[in-house]
Design goal:
6 helices, Glutamine Phosphoribosylpyrophosphate, subunit 1, domain 1, 6-stranded antiparallel β-sheet
């Protein structure tokens, strides 16, 4: 009932997950990222424990392959699950259970993994991956959205549309973007609109928040607007 991308941007080092489905509030259950550790997308007949447990396993040293094996082997419902994983070394692993609803499957490429179930057909996964790999010149968030739109054009979720989400982490422990469209007639278009709004101010404000290098952040309100204007002029993404 879902398809998603996990990817690592080679230019910025950012990690992202984008997902779309004919199901309510997909962003609350599918995408999971922990900075410096990895990413997990848990879908199909979703097991809500896969995300946190998978990230904990990777924090303890498990590889992406280890995570998929451990999570599925200990789950009696694994035939109904689908997940894909990226670890801190950029290695991917994926699993599609035998009882996931057709069309279902996954594909791993250099720097990106795509997985989906209950789709219109294999072209959804193939076109999503191709569009992502062909759009290297685009900023990371827009590249992810463009790839999902290509998958939607190939048929997407065969039941229709309802929700979508985009989660991106950079070097900070908290997200750079966490955008969720929980219930909408055209969720990917709405996600693209929200991402454009984020570029108007949020991403520039985010540069002044507490960080690893400056745990208190910049709190001088008198210069904040000027600093954001300078960031806008520099074209920061």
């Amino acid at each position: 009932m879902t398809w998603s991308i996990i990817a690592k941007d080679k230019v910025t080092g950012r990690i992202g997950i984008i997902v779309a489905t004919k199901f309510f509030a997909v962003g609350a259950r599918v995408p999971h990222i922990r900075t410096g550790i990895g990413a997990v997308a848990s879908q199909a007949f979703v097991n809500p424990f896969y995300g946190r447990r998978g990230l904990d396993l990777m924090a303890a040293g498990a590889s992406a392959d280890d995570v998929v094996r451990i999570l599925t082997c200990s789950d009696d419902g694994r035939a109904n699950r689908q997940l894909h994983v990226m670890d801190a070394s950029g290695r991917f692993a994926a699993y599609t259970g035998a009882d996931c609803v057709d069309w279902c499957g996954h594909a791993i490429h250099d720097g990106v993994s795509v997985a989906g179930n209950m789709l219109a057909g294999p072209a959804v996964i193939a076109d999503t991956a191709t569009a992502y790999m062909s759009a290297a010149a685009q900023p990371f968030a827009r590249r992810l959205i463009a790839a999902m739109l290509a998958g939607e054009a190939a048929g997407g979720d065969k039941r229709g549309k309802q929700s979508a989400a985009l989660l991106i982490h950079d070097e900070q422990e908290y997200s750079l973007l966490d955008l969720r469209v929980d219930d909408h007639a055209d969720p990917l278009a709405e996600l693209a609109r929200l991402e454009a709004i984020a570029r108007e101010r949020w991403l520039h404000f985010r540069r002044h928040m507490p960080s690893r290098d400056n745990p208190s952040g910049r709190i001088d309100r008198s210069t904040l607007d000027d600093d954001i204007a300078q960031s806008l002029a520099e074209g920061y993404e």
